[in-house]
Design a protein that fits this description.
Blueprint (H helix, E strand, L loop, with lengths): L5 E6 L20 E2 L3 E2 L2 H9 L4 E5 L5 H7 L13 E5 L14 H6 L2 H5 L5 E6 L2 E3 L3 H10 L4 E7 L9 E5 L5 E6 L8 E10 H12 L8 H11 L4 E5 L4 E3 L3 H10 L27 E2 L4 E3 L2 E2 L4 E2 L2 E3 L2 E2 L4 E2 L4 E3 L2 E2 L4 E2 L4 E3 L1 E3 L4 E2 L4 E2 L7 E3 L4 E2 L4 E2 L4 E2 L1 H9 L1
Parallel strand pairs: 1-4, 1-6, 4-5, 8-12, 14-17, 15-18, 16-19, 17-20, 18-21, 19-22, 20-23, 21-24, 22-25, 23-26, 24-27, 25-28, 26-29, 27-30, 28-31
Antiparallel strand pairs: 2-3, 6-11, 7-13, 8-11, 9-10
Length: 398
């Protein structure tokens, strides 16, 4: 069988509990973003644009929507007879049946998938980041430095550094120290969760790690420290363009708002690096004469009769006359009724914000409405609150 130079393994199985109600019914990479995309569109599009044509997507938590969305991979030109995109859930064997125990174990359980393509290199990606990156440039740097592992890095603010894998490098970008989420970081150079491994090295270290009963089976906690311990050549690859970990409600909201800045911090319109997605077939959006729409992204199928300011509206959103939406993200199929006000909020798919409702506040944390939720008339959701059908029932029964 023909050998592949590099294949990608996309870790998309995390529960994403920090996204609250958004991931109650779907995996984090399936969460909508930017008016017409889902988070997973970005690493998949990066692969396509980087000419990496074989991608294994490792799913675990609530995979149905993600699996359905990926389909055959045609959207990203990954529906190939040899290669393409493959959804890889955990599976039972004659010897064992277990969930993915960690990021490293997830790859280990799919050695059979990797070996059928006999790659020289394996690219490991996370499914919860928004960015545009040419993985081929990183691969070339990996080859030029004769590295066993190359890790994409970027500086982060010192106050958030304890949330990341942090590394120290020498003058040649060789990694000399790595700490996973240190309380007192020695550097602010953070791992982006993008790794390139030489396959022969990855196979050995993941096999040894799986045999260690005390291991957490994690790249940051186990694999990278073990490679450093053995003085293997590990290098950092500096990335300076836009990159956002959208693993929290606040960061997801911020990343959407970044699209509305002038100029946008993250440009979705660059024809040289398209982001591909599966979008519904809907008519063009309609904005009524008396409607007010300023500095907003309005996707196909929307009907706007009210006021929309500094917001991102996904496909099929209805904003009735007298409704006000400001600084918010409204996901597909939601209706905001006359007299309702939504500020600094994320409203999930297929919701109804009934007349007189107040969702969010002009200042404070982001309010969140869960999927398929209908707020009763006059219902109030304060800044930072999360509300779905179960929470409404609890309040009404109290």
């Amino acid at each position: 069988m023909k050998k592949k130079k590099c294949i990608a393994m996309l870790l998309a199985g995390g529960q994403g509990s920090r996204l609250g109600l958004l991931t109650k019914v779907m995996a984090k990479p399936a969460v909508p973003f930017g008016g017409k995309y889902r988070i997973i569109d970005f690493p998949l599009s990066n692969c396509t644009n980087s000419n990496i044509d074989t991608v294994g997507v490792l799913t675990q938590y609530r995979p149905l929507e993600l699996n359905s969305y990926i389909g055959s991979g045609q959207t990203w030109d990954l529906d190939l007879s040899y290669g393409g995109v493959y959804v890889l859930p955990p599976y039972a064997t004659a010897d064992s049946s277990e969930w993915y125990k960690g990021t490293a174990n997830a790859i280990f359980q799919n050695f059979g998938f990797i070996e059928q393509f006999n790659p020289e290199y394996v690219l490991v990606l996370s499914g919860d980041h928004i960015y545009k990156m040419d993985y081929n440039r990183m691969l070339q740097a990996h080859i030029d430095k004769k590295a066993d592992v190359t890790i994409a890095v970027r500086p982060v603010p010192w106050e958030v550094a304890p949330s990341f894998g942090i590394m120290s490098v020498d003058e040649n970008d060789a990694i000399i120290e790595f700490e996973e989420k240190p309380k007192n970081p020695k550097s602010n150079l953070a791992s982006m969760g993008v790794y390139i491994f030489t396959w022969s090295v990855m196979k050995k270290y993941l096999t040894d790690d799986n045999a260690d009963p005390n291991s957490k089976n994690d790249f940051g906690k186990n694999i990278i420290p073990n490679l450093l311990r053995d003085n293997k050549p590990l290098y950092a690859y500096a990335f300076t363009d836009y990159w956002k970990d959208v693993g929290t409600i606040a960061s997801l909201w911020e990343a959407n708002m970044d699209l509305l800045k002038t100029p946008p911090e993250f440009d979705l319109t660059d024809p040289r690096w398209k982001i591909y997605s599966r979008t519904p077939v809907m008519p063009p959006h309609f904005i009524a004469d008396d409607a007010v729409v300023t500095n907003s992204m309005v996707t196909e199928g929307c009907e706007i009769d009210g006021t929309v300011k500094d917001s991102v509206l996904f496909a099929g959103v209805q904003v009735e006359e007298g409704a006000v939406i400001e600084d918010s993200v409204i996901m597909p199929g939601t209706r905001v009724c006359s007299g309702a006000v939504v500020r600094r909020a994320i409203v999930s798919e297929d919701c109804v914000i009934s007349s007189g409702c107040q969702v969010g506040e002009a200042e404070g944390d982001i309010a969140l409405i869960g999927q398929d939720t209908t707020l009763p008339e006059g219902f109030v959701v304060k800044a930072g609150e999360q509300v779905d059908t179960d929470e409404i029932s609890r309040r009404e029964g109290a």
